[in-house]
């Protein structure tokens, strides 16, 4: 049996057999079987996180990891959404599975021990601390294996003052060797000291935002609930607009060739129809390129607001239980992406950093495996390559699926743009930023993002339901169509 390469007939390369098996044999996800995919395969990950608290558990964690990866692999090819209008959800599930497999591998091979350094000092129960280690990709630093230490697979031992893990924790310090790239991408071999844990302090990564406002539990829950509902309403409105105005093109739940072109050229849209009686109708017609730009922005904003809405919903629930501190969910996954003034700023800080740790970790390991130089530039660019592979191969349970190459290219091209910014600073001594930096980011991302927008919308993704329908339909019919956007 030969391993297939990436080709028009085998677009998923070595993952093609998994794709074909999943499409032919997977059961439709329902209320009767959802736990087989979303619960059972994750139990071993929680067990790994518990074992990570103790010395000498690596071999046990490796064994548990093998079980977890097996369960996860069987589940992702065994269950999928078969309804065309839910097809896009399969992409998110497959990407999540790939991320969890990476975490299983890491939790198996890291030497440990690993504890929740920041919140252990506040008396968090070990069972809750293990849950946070398993699910949290923003607050938990994984000792000397994390991104601040160039992905070294050597232990960052944490020493505790007492047996219950509630004393001061620290990592042995070593010589600082930090290389900071513009925009907050930082790689360092420093084994940082975690200061004054009894006061709830920890070393602050330069790229990670920290809460500046202290809220009561009630205030935090209300805030999370409001942001979850607001972002859901905007996201659902964008989805409904695509289905409403483009039901035969970009809003179809099946592939439509040249859907974006047809949508922008075969329709005429009125900007601010509420002004129709005050100006000539011709002055209100949006040109085709504005239609495509707005569509691309809507897709990207939808991804942003959809993920953010889910994050705040989970935050409201977990903080509301009283088992999580308010500040542990206080910072959003995103930091106002629309305000980015460079590509490094966008990808290094303002876009979500959920996969950041694993991209840098595995990029470093791959470079060392092939004896290639490990530096900030090579690690950064390879991280974008891995991101492109994850987002494109992550479509292997979709049917139909978008073309993989445009999805993949979005990320290496973004990496090239980040590299150009680094070169620009080295040549001029000035960092990309300000008003010209914002113009550059918008031009670059609209050009690169169009690859993904066209691929997704022409494959039927635009007709998918990613949120419970309701708010979008009401807002479109009562606000957007009468006052903001109309169709001739």
From TrEMBL:
InterPro entries referenced in this protein's UniProt entry, alphabetically: Wax_synthase, Wax_synthase_dom
Main location (coarse class): membrane
Domain Wax synthase: 332-401
GO biological process terms on file: lipid metabolic process
Coiled-coil spans in chain: none
A GO term for molecular function: O-acyltransferase activity
Annotated membrane topology: Multi-pass membrane protein
Membrane-spanning residues: 34-52, 59-79, 85-105, 359-385, 405-424
Organism superkingdom: Eukaryota
Any matching Pfam family: MBOAT_2
Localization annotation: Membrane
Pathway involvement of the protein, from the record: Secondary metabolite biosynthesis
Keywords, sorted A to Z: Membrane, Transferase, Transmembrane, Transmembrane helix
GO cellular-component term (any): membrane
PANTHER family: LONG-CHAIN-ALCOHOL O-FATTY-ACYLTRANSFERASE 3-RELATED, OS04G0481900 PROTEIN
Similarity section: Belongs to the wax synthase family.
Name listed for the protein in its UniProt record: Wax synthase domain-containing protein
Species of origin: Kwoniella europaea PYCC6329
Lineage, top ranks: Eukaryota, Fungi, Dikarya, Basidiomycota, Agaricomycotina
